[in-house]
């Protein structure tokens, strides 16, 4: 019996697989048993009602998707009346993703959502900070530190901080979030991208630019998880292009404690369940008793030979 459980700070998850924010919805209960997931992560919510970005909002490219959904939100009252009671019927912990345009409003929202039924807050600080020329909070260490410090003071819930891959100072940003009190980091949101329509010579997306996700981003985000997990002591949750068990194992080896699955769910709605079953099989074939032994187990170049007997699978 392989133990698939992992610990993210004070939370123990039954397994390391959960949805990425914005790519999961209640209707998926028709195609999978929600109780098998490691956790739920909601679509990012904001305090007020928001319409989201102009259409079209999604375009497909090789091995990837570019989306400019923005953050359409039904607001906090809808979340409290509908979404929260819905997830209360299931076992996995509920992680609520939040966003706001200023650090102060982020903190207010975190306080408002610190209530029973919510296991952790995931702060999506990859969104524009209106006090910093619209640059995402997570693009710089200083603005990350400011917003995470305010969030930390505003909630007693475990605080996960979702970073952007669109920064040249990712390890510094990761350390700033840890120093300001984050309990875990989610690495990462989408990569800023553009697509152009050759019939019209216009950008394909109504918002011109959007975020790249899906298999094409995996090697980039995997590298970022590797870097971040070496920069901080808190758990890192990997998110970017995971669609198979092998992708998830690579992330764990690179240092992720858990993984989030996004775009793959659009292609194969029950992908997460296949990954959970696959992780169990991967460990069983190598006599690995606990999936957590894979975390950060990538061998560095100085190692002459694998120290771990289980690197080669049983035939
Ligand atoms: C259609 C769509 C909507 C998304 N909405 C959100 C969101 O509301 N909040 C957020 O933090 N990330 C959002 N994301 C980003 C995903 O959570 C994830 O970080 C990204 O897609 C990379 O993972 P993937 O390659 O597995 O999709 C969205 C992604 C997609 C494709």
Structure description:
By secondary structure, the chain is α/β, with parallel strands linked by helices. 29% of the residues lie in helices and 19% in strands. It has helices spanning 75-87, 103-112, 141-154, 170-179, 218-231, 245-254, 264-267, 271-285; strands spanning 6-8, 11-13, 17-19, 40-41, 58-61, 64-67, 94-98, 120-124, 159-163, 184-187, 191-194, 196-197, 202-203, 209-213, 236-239, 258-261. The strands form 4 sheets. It has an 8-stranded parallel beta sheet with strand order 3-16-15-10-9-8-7-4. Helix 5 (218-231) runs parallel beside helix 6 (245-254) and helix 6 crosses helix 8 (271-285). The two termini are 18 Å apart. The model has no long low-confidence stretch (mean pLDDT 94). Flavin mononucleotide (FMN) binds next to strand 6.
Quickly give the structural class: alpha/beta
What summary fits the major beta sheet?
A: 8 strands, parallel
Side by side, the strands of the main sheet go 3-16-15-10-9-8-7-4
Number of helices: 8
Rg on CA atoms, Å: 19 Å
The helix/strand series, from N terminus to C terminus, equals EEEEEEHEHEHEHEEEEEHEHEHH
Ions, cofactors and other ligands present here are: flavin mononucleotide
Overall mean confidence score, pLDDT: 94
How many DSSP-defined strands? 16
Content of β-strand:
15-25%
What is the helix content? 25-40%
Task: Note the quaternary state here.
Answer: single chain
Coarse shape: globular
Detail the poorly predicted runs. none
Instruction: State the end-to-end distance.
Output: 18 Å
């Amino acid at each position: 019996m392989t133990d698939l459980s992992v610990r993210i700070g004070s939370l123990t998850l039954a397994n390391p697989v959960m949805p990425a924010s914005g790519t999961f919805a209640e209707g998926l209960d028709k195609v999978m048993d929600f109780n098998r997931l490691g956790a739920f992560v909601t679509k990012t919510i904001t305090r007020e009602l928001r319409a989201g970005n102009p259409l079209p909002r999604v375009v497909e490219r090789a091995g990837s998707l570019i989306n400019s959904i923005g953050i359409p939100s039904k607001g906090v009252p809808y979340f409290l009346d509908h979404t929260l009671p819905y997830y209360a019927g299931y076992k996995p912990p509920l992680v609520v993703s939040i966003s706001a345009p200023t650090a102060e409003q982020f903190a207010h929202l975190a306080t408002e959502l610190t209530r029973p039924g919510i296991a952790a807050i995931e702060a999506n600080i990859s969104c524009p900070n209106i006090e910093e020329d619209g640059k995402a909070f997570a693009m710089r260490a200083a603005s990350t530190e400011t917003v995470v410090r305010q969030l930390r003071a505003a909630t007693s819930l475990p605080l996960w901080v979702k970073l952007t891959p669109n920064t040249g100072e990712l390890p510094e940003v990761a350390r700033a979030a840890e120093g300001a009190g984050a309990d875990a980091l989610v690495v990462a949101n989408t990569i800023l991208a553009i697509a152009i329509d050759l019939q019209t010579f216009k950008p394909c997306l109504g918002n011109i630019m959007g975020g790249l996700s899906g298999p094409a981003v995996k090697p980039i985000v995997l590298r970022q998880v590797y870097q971040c997990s070496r920069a901080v002591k808190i758990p890192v949750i990997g998110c970017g292009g995971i669609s198979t068990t092998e992708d998830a194992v690579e992330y764990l080896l690179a240092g992720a404690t858990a993984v989030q699955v996004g775009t793959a769910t659009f292609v194969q709605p029950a992908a997460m369940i296949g990954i959970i079953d696959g992780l169990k099989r991967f460990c069983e074939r190598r006599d690995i008793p606990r999936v957590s032994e894979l975390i950060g187990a990538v061998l560095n170049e100085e190692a002459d030979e694998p120290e771990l007997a289980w690197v080669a699978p049983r035939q």
